[in-house]
Amino acid sequence: MPIVNEHYQITLNDALNAHEEALRYGGRSGVSNLGMVESAIGRPYSGYHETLAQKASALLHSMIGNHGFVDGNKRTSWILTMVLIDNSGAELVLKEDDLIDDLVVDVARGALGFDDLVPWFEARLVSTDA
Questions:
Q1: Domains parsed from the chain with CATH numbers
Q2: What are 94-118's pLDDT values in tens digits?
């Protein structure tokens, strides 16, 4: 059953904090286009995405595609998507053969789009709300 409860709304501060976390693994800091970051974090709340899987897919897809930071966009996108999931009362339960790096790179190179991500998240999201 899709998780459709009230979801945490990602903020610009969340995105900037996720970027700082991503840079712990290397890369250059800085925002190359603040509007692109704001656009990406706004997409899940545009009214078209009701379930958490849709919101997570929209956020990951847009954050990676908009490339709003100087460096570390893919890592930032994944961290920020996990912030959304964790703060929405859900958990992402990965399968043994899930390779997150490959998933994120596939989104970045256009091999996976929003419509591919939704069922991927649906199959792995579990509500932690009682």
A1: 12-127 (1.20.120.1870)
A2: 999 999 999 999 999 999 999 999 9
- Cβ pair 40, 66 in contact under 8 A: yes
Kindly provide the b/e burial profile for residues 40-54, where b requires at least 16 CB atoms within 10 angstroms of the residue's own CB: bbebbeeeebebbbb
Integer CA distances (angstroms), 76 to 12, 21, 47, 66, 105, in order = 12, 8, 24, 12, 13
Concatenated DSSP letters for 109-122? TTSS-HHHHHHHHH
- Average per-residue pLDDT in the chain? 94
Q: How far apart are CA 83 and CA 7, in angstroms?
A: 11
Q: Which of 80, 66, 75, 78 is nearest to 12 (CA)?
A: 80
Chain centre distance of CA 92 = 12
pTM of the full structure: 0.94
Q: Please give the Cα distance from 71 to 105 (Å, whole number).
A: 14
